[in-house]
Amino acid sequence: MKKKIKYYYIFLYLSFIVITIRLFELQILDNNYYLEKLSSRQNKIIYEDTSLRGRIYDRNNKLLVDNKLIPTIYYKKEEGMTSKDEIILAKEVSQKLDLDYHKLTKSYLKDFYILENNDIIEKRIKKSDKDKLEKRQITANEYYQIKKNLVTDDDLSIYSDDDKKYIYLYYLMNNNYSYMEKIIKENCSIEEFMYFSENNHNLHGFDTKYNYGRSYVYGDTLRNILGNVGSIPEEMKEYYLGRGYNINDKVGLSNIEFVYDDYLKGSKAMYLIKDNEKILIKEPVKGNDLYLTIDIDLQKMVDGILEDEVKKAKSAYNSKYYNHSYVMISDTLGNILSMNGKEIMNGKIVDVAIGNITDTVTAGSVVKAASMIVGYDTGSIKIGEVIKDECIKIKATPKKCSIYNMGNINDINALAFSSNVYQFKTAIRVGGGKYRYNESLKINDKAFDIYRDYFGRFGLGVNTGIELPNESRGYKGTNREPGLLLNFAIGQYDTYTNIQLNQYISTVAQNGVRYKMHLLKMIKDNDGKIIYQNEPEILNKLDVAEKYIKRVQAGLKAVTTYGSGRKYVSIDASGKTGTSESFIDSNHDGKIDTETISTNFVMYAPSIEPKVAISINSPNIGTPESEYRYPINQNVIKKITSNINKYLK
Questions:
Q1: Contact assessment for residue 365 and residue 491, using Cβ atoms and an 8 Å cutoff
Q2: Model-level pTM?
Q3: Do the bridges between strand 324-330 and strand 336-345 make them parallel or antiparallel, or are there none, so unpaired?
């Protein structure tokens, strides 16, 4: 017994020594480390996006986008609230809120089922999976995913539509850290706002406040260009969280608001979370202000003209398939002054300005200035060369003609009167072919690459540089039959956007210098200091003899002086008309089945030292069954040019 007691005392003595050493380490040596650990558990630094977004102005300092107060219902978890308490609360509150529970995903519904029925799901898990978790062969997240996969549709069928309302509300209540305010509903009704304001003392964490949202001063004008602001979309969640955003942050979702979000969003308020209380340690800072190249007065003027003419065109004869037109105006240095698009949808006119960069059209004869440059620079034609305009016939294909047989015609008049045959014969030469009536035609198919290379340097079939996402490059045909090269030369093969047509005619106006298209003029900080100034940016210079550019410019001047565009303009200008065959799916069955006629016009003014470039296209304005087509392009351009000088200061 004495031996046992002795060993016991020795054990106690050694244990005391170990405990003393460990206490010394904890309290003396590692004191700071554990104080930091304690502080990190009790205190957190969080950021909340309560700052105002920057405003957006036009080029003349006119306000386009402002901030406004939005009535908002939010929830912040009270201390001591359990999941069971929150579910009971969600059931009660959901009766007072009109929420779109259809946003509730199947994935979260499974999460909720597991929350309420974890024992049932645990019984379904294989012992081997439980062993893997215990042996740390799988993570807790992987184990949870196994549980989630075991929840069946039959399990979820127990939830009615009313159940899904409170489940969705419960999801919103827990969709972030517990100490954060969760937005439950923005733009709530007056009745909802008053109920939650008056009863917040009984609603255990629900309350109201005013958040800031966006106000678009000119309504629908340019709305699809300016873009939208909203909650982080599910598919972008990881991207934004990785950049330090919170899940409830408001971000730019599209176009200008999206592209310049880093400038517009401002900086967040910084809070210290201590003892479950928020302490402000850094004020939020308002975002920077954007100034666009857009002239809103010009934009509104053109919108009014276009809307009026679209209505008239739709009610005119032979306009069964017509429903929209696009107009773009720039200053020939890439600064976009207006982007206009109007479409008749379900009997109403809607703004579709974004179509200038997303929708493509068969351009027709407007591209002939570029085609003429191809001919000159490859040595296929000479300045002043006369070519006979007559229908040409390739074996096993229909005749290819101009609008009428023009006889012997030089290069200037070929542009003025829009000779197709002049371009056909030029294209044959570019391709190294020999034309004989009703015989097969052979060409070097590299001629397609030659044409596309020149066209690209004008801005056709390539990105224009505009900062907006989703810009279309257009369609590039892959078939290289000889007849299609002839079609290409008159704008009847590849397709282009209206912004490409605008950049193309601007490049001609600038003697072959192509400028990047853009909408941003400058950015100012909260003190009014310019922190970014957008300057004209040259994308490329057309490496051709100046005399060729000047000759084409003379041809475009002839178009508006005595040629096909003589009735279009009210000022000194140069330009080119274009009519093209186009094809549509008229019954929406996925098959192209109907031929239509589309019209285009491009111009710059004045002819010497140009200040402005204008492009317009009106797809499907008529059908081949009738020669009549409502002259919408002519009417719109005539009205614009009658009023444009006052905007070109």
A1: yes
A2: 0.82
A3: antiparallel
Backbone angles phi, psi at 90, to 5 degrees: -60, -40
Domain definitions of the chain by residue range: 296-647
Q: Which residues contact 509 (CB under 8 A, 6 or more apart)?
A: 332, 574, 604, 610, 613
Q: Which CATH architecture fits 296-647?
A: 3-Layer(aba) Sandwich (3.40)
For 580, other C-beta atoms within 10 Å of its C-beta total 24
How far, in whole angstroms, is CA 595 from its chain's centroid? 30
Phi, psi of 585 (to 5 degrees): -95, 95
As a whole number of angstroms, the distance between CA 2 and CA 408 comes to 133
At 217-263, the pLDDT tens digits run 999 999 999 999 988 887 888 888 787 777 777 889 999 999 999 99
Span 317-326, pLDDT tens digits: 999 999 999 9
List the structure tokens of 132. 């893997």
Report which of 590, 598, 635 is spatially closest to residue 321, judged by C-alpha positions.
598
Neighbours of 247 (CB within 10 A): 14
Q: Are 51 and 265 in contact (CB under 8 A)?
A: yes
Contact 53, 287 (CB under 8 A): yes
3-state secondary structure of 340: strand
CA 352 distance to own-chain centroid: 13
List active site positions. Answer: 365
